[in-house]
Amino acid sequence: MTAALDGWEHTEFTADDRTREVFRRGDGPGVIVIHEIPGITPKVARFANDLVASGFTVAMPSLVGTPGRSVSGLYGTASLLKVCVAREFTHWALQRTSPIIMWLRALAADLHERVGGRGVGAVGMCFSGGFALGMMVDPVMVAPVLSQPSLPFALGKPARHADLNLSPEDAERVAARAADGCEVLGLRFDQDKLVGTRFDSLRALLGDAFIAVDLPSTSKRDHSVLTEQRDEASVQRVIDFLTSKLLA
Questions:
Q1: Which of 7, 83, 118, 165 is the most buried (most CB within 10 A)?
Q2: Contact 201, 86 (CB under 8 A)
Q3: Ramachandran quadrant class, 16 (left: phi over 0; alpha: psi -120 to 50; beta: rest)
Q4: Average pLDDT of 89-102?
Q5: Per residue in 71-94, pLDDT tens?
Q6: How many whole angstroms separate alpha carbon 229 and alpha carbon 207?
């Protein structure tokens, strides 16, 4: 394990016939941090450590890549290819919930059982950005955060750019939870093409329960709001949102 994950407990969690590495640290209410491509990088770990320092128990599952490894071109490409071909992560078909979300829901339930509190939060990023929305089907998820949600990848037809990676049944449940008062925080750079038009879709599905943070893009590379192109105000916005839902 690299220095980026010093102090983290290395465990495994099994559910839905899948076993994954999970890194845990902290005290207080639970928050699941779901990494972006290429994996749990030092900057993802830095963000997770910020949550630990703010009073949360954080669980970080490793879905692809090598935990603690820094970003590089070849590494990023290899992880992207794994995401593209793995059935558990993405569907090229629209209006489908990624199978990995069932595993993440089980992880959230387990974390809540361990630490208690009002419920748990989740922060998804990039390919996992929409996963926190799918986890909202379960009442235990009370603080979903979507950072630059990018699945299904916004290629080709406009419908792909707008899809929320949810089955119609799950979308109905999510909308009902939003109507009952469960708010969703979303963050993106406003010229990020990978996000497509999903923020419009989120507004349509969630109404006033969707809290959108649109950051002005200063470069074509702007994408990772909380990590590689880290915006400090947005990191604090996420901490404040999780605090208001889980700690206040």
A1: 165
A2: no
A3: left
A4: 80
A5: 998 898 989 888 888 888 765 667
A6: 28
Question: In this structure, what token pair is assigned to residue 110?
Answer: 């387990």
Instruction: Report DSSP state, residue 29.
Output: S
Which residue type, as a one-letter code, is found at position 77? Answer: T
Residue matched to tokens 């559910």: 15
Tokens of residue 213, six digits: 């943070």
In the chain the domains, ranked by start, together with CATH numbers, are 3-246 (3.40.50.1820)
pLDDT classification of 1: cutoffs 50, 70, 90? low
The alpha carbon dihedral of 205, 207, 210, 212 has a sign of positive
135 Cβ partners below 8 Å, 6+ apart? 32, 101, 104, 105, 108, 122, 141, 144
Distance CA 242, CA 120 (A): 9
**Backbone phi and psi for residue 181, each to the nearest 5 degrees, phi listed first:** 115, 0
Residue 47 is which amino acid? F
With residue 45 as reference, give the H or E element that holds it: helix 42-53
